[in-house]
Specification:
The chain is mostly beta strands. The protein has a single domain, classed as Sandwich (Immunoglobulin-like), CATH 2.60.40. It contains two helices and 14 strands.
Length: about 210
């Protein structure tokens, strides 16, 4: 089982998201999304992420370099997994539900509390608004562009939106990090923690790794 430790970097909350990169570069934990779980989808872009936290928020800074770029969805709650997309899934130990936070390359989010892929409760508008995001790309939709592109996305997810009490955080949660782009010229399904399933499926908490807070 994959494991990581999330460093506490209290000053992140006082910085604008566009300027947290220099601090996360030196203080955050860096990990890679580089596991190809399904041979029929061999394409693997270069993907890394930095992760850190404050008392109130979890910060993830994604770096992506790969073939093609796509962002058709601007409204939160849209199927961003069909665009150039990065994802974070998590759950508390012992809980029957898990949460997914999916972002396309311009920062549009689709998130929910789920019992399964089909059974979910989506975030409210207020909860979506509380998730801060910064993309290195312009906040505008565009059709798929072929070629090699690099982009960065920083997100700050409040612990309360993750179902956690900021004043009483658990020692660890379970989770996984993903990169996908289902409806593109180079569809791929890459993960941080390996998934032993016969076909692409990110909705599988049994394969989550350990994330120590």
């Amino acid at each position: 089982m994959k494991k990581l430790k999330v460093p506490l970097v209290e000053t992140l909350d006082v910085l604008d998201l566009s300027s947290v990169g220099f601090l996360m570069e030196t203080k955050a934990q860096r990990e890679y999304i580089d596991i190809v779980n399904w041979a029929e989808y061999p394409y693997k872009p270069i993907v890394a992420f930095d992760i850190a936290r404050t008392d109130q928020n979890l910060y993830i800074r994604y770096f992506v370099k790969g073939n093609s770029l796509k962002a058709l969805h601007l409204e939160d709650g849209s199927p961003v997994y069909t665009d150039s997309c990065v994802e974070f899934f998590m759950k508390q130990e012992g809980e029957a539900v898990y949460r997914n936070f999916e972002f396309n390359c311009i920062g549009t989010c689709d998130a929910a509390c789920r019992k399964s892929r089909e059974e979910k409760t989506s975030l409210t508008k207020e909860e979506y608004a509380s998730i801060r995001r910064y993309s290195s790309l312009e906040r505008a939709v565009f059709p798929e562009k072929l070629g090699v592109y690099s982009w960065e996305l920083v997100v700050a997810i409040p612990f309360c939106v993750m179902g956690l009490d900021p004043d009483n955080l658990p020692e660890k949660i379970l989770g996984n990090f993903y990169k996908c782009a289902d409806d593109t010229e180079f569809p791929h399904f890459v993960s941080w923690s390996p998934i032993d399933k016969p076909s692409p499926d990110f909705h599988c908490p049994e394969f989550f790794g350990e994330i120590y807070l």
